[in-house]
Amino acid sequence: MNAPRVDSDLLVIGLGNVERGDDAIGVRLVQAVSARSPERVEWREWGDSDALSMAHDLLEVRCPVLVVDGARMGARPGKWRVFDEESVRFARAGQALSTHGIGFDDALRLARTLGFDQPLRFFAVQVENLAPGGALSQALAERFDSLTKALENTIDAMLTGTACER
Amino acid sequence: MSGTHRIHIEHVSRIEGHGSLRINTREGAVEEVRLEIVEANRFFESIVLGLPPEDIAQTVSRICGICCVGHQLAALKAVEAALGIVPDAQTLLLRKLLNESQFLQSHALHLYFLAVPDYVGAKSILPLAQSQPDLVRRALRLKKLANDFTALIGGRTLHPMAPTLGGFRRFPGRDALAGIRRRLADSVTETEAMVEFVAGLDIPQLERETEYVSLKAPDEYALYDGQIYSSLTGELVDVSQYRTVTNEFTVPHSTAKWARWNRESYMVGALARVNNNFAQLHPAAQAVAERLGIEVPCFNPYMNNLAQLVELVHCTHNSLAMLDEALDTDFRSRSVDFSTRAGTGAGAVEVPRGVLFHEYGFDDQGLCSSADAVIPTSQNVNNIEKDMQAFVPQLLGKVDEATLAQRMEMLLRAYDPCISCSVHLLEVEFV
C-alpha cells in the first residue's frame, strides 16, 4: 500500500501495466531511477492502481508531480518528451462508459475538480508494442539507458526550478 | 408527451459492461421493451478445463475486477467441496473480512459514482464533483479505505493472492489490522452524512413484486455462507442444487443466459438480501433502512441503491466486530493436504450484486473437467426487463421521451449490473 501523503520536493509516479510490453516503461524507469535518487524525491509505482484511488492520492499531494508513462504521440518508438497537461489533449478523457474504462487522465480531471492544485508534468515515452505478456520492444530496450538519463535530468531540472509548497 | 416513442440507447453508460435498451411504443401502447446484452463471450468456463485445483480460484478471479474477491471465494468453496477440504476458523474469519471489504468497495463505487449522478442531474462523476465536492471527496476516501482493507487481508486490491485452498498464504499484521480498524471506525460519521444525503433523493415510486432470492443463514446476515432462499415460497435449497434455482435459459437478444425459479423472473442483490434477511442486519443498518424509508418487503427496484447503503453500514459495523476478533487471533499457518480425486463441488457467496454460484468437476487425474459460473447479473437481467415492461406503460403519457429513457437507464443502473461478468454463454442460437 502506498502511504498517501507526500510532503517531499517532488513526487515521481510511474504508470503502466508491467505485463503489457512497452506499457511497462513508466514503472521500469521509476524503478531504475529511484534506486539512486535524492532524498527530496518521493516515488510511487501506480502500475495496478485504479483511477479513483489515483484521484484520492493526488488530493493528498503537497508538492509538484512528474508522471512517467508510455504514450502514443506520433513519434518514433523510444522518443521521449516532457510536457505540461495544459499543452496536450487527452484523447480518451471522459470517453469511458464505465469505471472499468477510466484512466489516469480522468483521475487527474477529477482531482483537479476537487482541488488538486500542484503543478504536474509528464515524462512520456513513445511506445511501440503493447502486447500482453510481452517484454519491452527492442526500440525501447535499446534506449533504456538514455531514457533513464533523460529522466534523471528532468527530475534535476524540476528540483532546481520548483519549490515545495508545504 | 405523445404515446409514440422509438428509443434505442446503445451502450448504456455508468454500468459495468455493455448493454443496450430498446423501447418502442405506439399511440400509448407498448410494442417492445428489451434489454439487449451485447457483451462478447468470455469463455472462462473453458479456460479452466485441464487446470489443477489450486489454479482455479486465481484464474476465475479475472472474470471481474470488481467482484474478483467473490469469484475467488466461490471458486475456493466449490473446489473445497469437491475435494473434501474443510477450512478452519481463522480462514473463515479472514474470508468473511475479505468479502465484506469488497462489499464496501463495490457499494461505495456504485452508489456514489454510478447511481447518485442520476438523482442530482449530473451526467457523470465530474459534474457531480463540481456540484457536490464534499460528497465525492467522502466517496474517494471510503473507496480508498475499502481498497486498502482488501489489500491488507488479501495481499493486494485486485485479484488478491493470499486466499488459497483451505487457508491463507499470508496473514495481516496486527498493527495494520489496528490501522484499518481505526480508519473504518472514523468512516462511520462520513457514512452517516451520506445517509442524510441519500434520504433526500427523489426515488421513483414504481413497484413490481417479484421473487427475491439470496443466501440465508441461521446465525448471521448471510454474505459468505448459507442456503438458497426464496421469498416467494420460503424454500431453502442446498447450494449443491443451485441449478434447480437458476434454471438458465437463452433468449435471442442477449449473450448472457437468463434465469427464473418459481415465477417468470427473480431478483438478487442488496434489496433481495435486505428483504430476506432484514432481522439479521446490524441494528445500525436497520436504523438506516428505517431512515431511508425501506419497509420490508420492499417491491421498488430503485430502492436497491438505498439497500446498498444499508449494507454498507452493516458491513462497516460487522467488519469492526470481526476486526476486533482478528486482533485477538494468533494467526498460524497450517499445511492443507488434499489428495487427487474425481468429484464435483459447488460453492456460493453473496457478492455485492447478488448470489454467485460456481461449480467445478475434477477427473481421475485431479484436473478440472467441468466448470460453471452463474453470475448475479445474469440472474437479474430477466427481472430487469420485466420491470421495464411493467413500468413503461405506467409512465407513458406522463413523462416526455427523454425522461422515460432516463428512468429506464436509472432502473438498469439501480441493479448495479456487471454485464461483463454475466456473459458466459457458449451455445447461443441467434434467430
Can I get a quick summary?
Chain A is α/β, with parallel strands linked by helices and about 170 residues long. Chain A has helices spanning about 25-35, 50-60, 105-115, 140, 145-160; strands at about 10-15, 40-45, 65-70, 80-85, 120-125.
User: Largest sheet of chain A, order of strands side by side?
Assistant: 2-1-3-5-4
The strand order across the widest sheet of chain B is 8-7-6-9
What would the average pLDDT of chain B be, to the nearest integer? 90
| Whole-angstrom Rg of chain B | 21 Å
Biggest interface goes to:
A-B, 21 and 33 residues
Report the uncertain regions of chain B.
421-431
- State the shape of chain A: globular
Number of strands of chain A: 5
Q: Give the strand content of chain A.
A: 15-25%
- Report the strand count of chain B: 12
Oligomer status: heterodimer
Q: Indicate the mean pLDDT of chain A.
A: 85
What helical percentage do the residues of chain B reach? 40-55%
Largest sheet of chain A: 5 strands, mixed
Strand content of chain B: 15-25%
Terminal CA distance of chain A reads 23 Å
The tally of helices of chain B reads 14
SSE run of chain B: EEEHHHHHHEEHEEEHEHHHEEEHHH
Helix content of chain A: 25-40%
Please tell me what the overall shape of chain B is.
Answer: globular
Low-confidence stretches of chain A: none
Please describe the structure with a list of short key phrases separated by commas or semicolons.
heterodimer, A: 166 residues, alpha/beta, five-stranded mixed β-sheet, 5 helices, 5 strands, 31% helix, globular, B: 431 residues, alpha+beta, four-stranded mixed β-sheet, three-stranded antiparallel β-sheet, 14 helices, 46% helix, 15% strand
